[in-house]
Amino acid sequence: MMREGQAHTVYRADYQAPAWWIETVDLTFDLDPAKTRVLNKMRVRRNPDVPAQPLHLNGDELNLARVLVNGAGTSFKMEGSDLVLENLPEGSEPVDLEIFTTCVPEKNTKLMGLYTSNGSFFTQCEAEGFRRITYFLDRPDVMAMYTVTLRASKALFPVLLSNGNLVEQGELPEGRHFAKWVDPHKKPSYLFALVAGNLVAREQKIKSRAGNEHLLQVYVRPGDLEKTEHAMNSLMASIAWDEARFGLSLDLERFMIVATSDFNMGAMENKGLNIFNTKYVLASQATATDADYANIESVVGHEYFHNWTGDRVTCRDWFQLSLKEGLTVFRDQEFSMDMAGSPSARAVKRIDDVRVLRTVQFPEDAGPMAHPVRPDSYVEINNFYTVTVYEKGAEVVRMQSELVGREGFAKGMKLYFERHDGQAVTCDDFAQAMADANPGSPLAQHLAQFKRWYSQSGTPRVAASGTYDASAQTYTLTLSQHCPATAGQPSKEPFVIPVTLGLVGADGSQLPVVIRATEGLSAFANSATSHTVVLTQPTQTIVFEGVAQESTPSLLRNFSAPVVLEMDYSDSQLRHLLAHDADAFNRWEASQRLGLRIALQNIAARANTASADITDSALDANILPTPYIEAMRAVLRDPLLDAAFKDLALTLPSEAYITEQLDSVDPQIVHQVREAMRQQLATDLAADWAWAYEQCSNTGAYAPDAVSSGKRALAGHALLMLCVAARASGDKVWPGKTLQRFKDAGNMTDRYNALSALVVSGSELAPHALQSFHAMFKNDELVMDKWFALQAGAPDVDGSALPAVRALIKLPDFNIKNPNRARSVIFSYCSGNPGGFHRADGAGYAFWAEQVITLDDFNPQVAARLARALDRWKKLAEPYRTAAGEAIAKVAAKPKLSNDVREIITQAMNH
Ligand code: TRP
Ligand code: ZN
């Protein structure tokens, strides 16, 4: 028997089919916040394919009142928190079980299972929350048909929702009422949901292509209804997109979204009853930014797309999580790109996605929590809802789509559903369907090797070098791949790496690509000037023929594989790509390489100087070479480039991304170097920023489309830079204009950007603006989260950030039990404010330890997320490293640490 609190590792290799199936479940809930009674009647049957075993039902924090087998009492025992029934009838006949339990939703601070939030009931069952509601085979490969009856006080809980169709409702004695729901689809327990409370809905009737009618509903608290229009529009767009692009239609009469303010993650795809964090539902132009609008569209799409990729075809076990998450992220990314429209807007979305991958997933893949897209083991599955499983998993699906083509991918999806609809399957099954639907494709040719993307962790590095032979008119490119060792995986085999490439001529034209056929080299054309080479060997040489002029290779276009590309471009080659590459992604990439190079040179130059000497270093005012400044000015002034692209190209590589390139990191040096670069970019281009601001500051009536949100982004960026320039010059005009902009703004994007410019530039006008922002929005939780986050992320002036954060968590508006609010302050400081967090005295790390320990007592899932903020501590230079190690040891020493946090801390200490 497992002792409580003792970590237990689950291995993928140990998978065994369940000894029992559950065919039907009939649940009756008597909902009461203090004591909810759950009657679970289920019909179970032995799995004839495995040797007979007792029935082990999972449970967690349940009070068991009664167990009946075929209507009669029975003996049972407990193993840990599992309920074990050993004396069930032999044979293949179904067995009827009746299990009666109670639980305490109002005391459920983990927000897993059944809990209350603002007086309403919600559930969260993925991954293993259903066992906190009733005893069950709480694993995704056990799929059952559900009937659910909800009973509650009609006055307090007028709305009663569960999965599927409402078949009956009515009154009960003593002011209570009931609703009965039947889900027409079988599902695993993690997709179960119920909601009960005082909610209102925006409703929309739609007709599918097939002519079926559906009712769509978005449920929110009374008063929030006018903020649901964008979510409803996003849902309708998602439904139309999945039909048009993949032929997948809505398979339910009714599809519901419900918003709650207390939620551990973004949203959840429960069949027919998606439950969302309010952050990804509620929007009005007065309260939500363009980024919020885009996130809502993307998350609504994501959860809706799970209806097929997740719900109809689900995961055999939790190691296969990326089967549904990687695929569904790929689908939501494609959806957002298709919604964005123009090629340039698509590229902006791609750049945003790659930025997340490189600043969050690449570090994960190089750190103590490195794991393959399909992990091999875990202690706590909640710790594996990661950027590797989601974002890298999406890249692995994206590469498959590149290797079979857009049409081929649609064929693969069709075959996947023909084979696996209604099943719980594996990542292998998905890749096999893709390959089988596309015989002869590079994916089919290299399937076994391609699947290393699922089994090997770590970010491969591709080193490129080329030479031009003017007389032969050939350009010869050598590409070598190598993947560094990662936690638990000392050596790697070569990957299948699609490298999309082209040649940019010295005159700026895109040269025709002709690749010499070579034994063992697979390549295909995307257009006359862009081909994809499929690397399979450690080193491969590609010869381009008919190259009539000097050229610069444009490699890994559109980020065709999740790798680090090492190419010794000269600065002038990078500026050439920035000016002329036909691939918008690589134009942006050139801007980032230029910036990164300057940052790394200056960091190296300062590494031997004591931190204290740096701030007033004479070099700082001239950290940026003139050609770089001129290249950036050219981008900013380019009449053909979209504002959104300019905004991204003029954003310096983040501190996280710069840090990733270093073996030993002094976060203060990284911070100071980047600050100095930004200061000069602001000052030297001040006139250009002012021009850009005038060009973009007026976007007319608010609409969150790609073009006008791009303009607002560039206008906001310009204001920030103008305030940063003013900080150095003593100018008062731009901070004044920014404050006026803050006051006059017609939408939250402009208002927030102005406020942020004042705060981030350290303007003396910031405190006043923050105060008036608070006065305007103190009753809006989501806007107050922004208010908290902005201050927790504010620049550190002589150690000011930590005391400011300590003051924020003492405010009456702060509530650590609410995950959004905890994230807005604690995470914004520990993960989003490196200059303020990495203090030489270690006080930032001590604060982190305190907060991890505090959170762990009531919400281990959120605590474990915060614990990850220090998981790359071994990369830190002294004195940071020792101080971080002490903080980690302090967390490790906490009595009764959750498995969630213990797993993270153990990995951080051991790797
Ligand atoms: N499956 C959800 C998604 O769409 C993720 C999720 C939501 C989740 N809430 C959770 C995972 C709680 C674990 C625990 O990506
Ligand atoms: Zn998902």
UniProtKB/TrEMBL annotation:
Residues 26-191 form the Aminopeptidase N-like N-terminal domain. InterPro entries: Aminopeptidase_N-like_N, Aminopeptidase_N-like_N_sf, PepN_Ig-like_sf, Peptidase_M1, Peptidase_M1_dom, Peptidase_M1_pepN, Peptidase_M1_pepN_C, Peptidase_M1_pepN_C_sf. Residues 571-909 form the Peptidase M1 alanyl aminopeptidase C-terminal domain. Its EC number is 3.4.11.2. GO terms for molecular function: alanyl aminopeptidase activity. It holds the Pfam family DUF3458. Its cofactor is Zn(2+). It comes from the Bacteria. Keywords: Aminopeptidase, Hydrolase, Metal-binding, Metalloprotease, Protease, Zinc. Residues 231-439 form the Peptidase M1 membrane alanine aminopeptidase domain. NCBIfam families: pepN_proteo. Belongs to the peptidase M1 family. This is Aminopeptidase N. It comes from Comamonas odontotermitis.
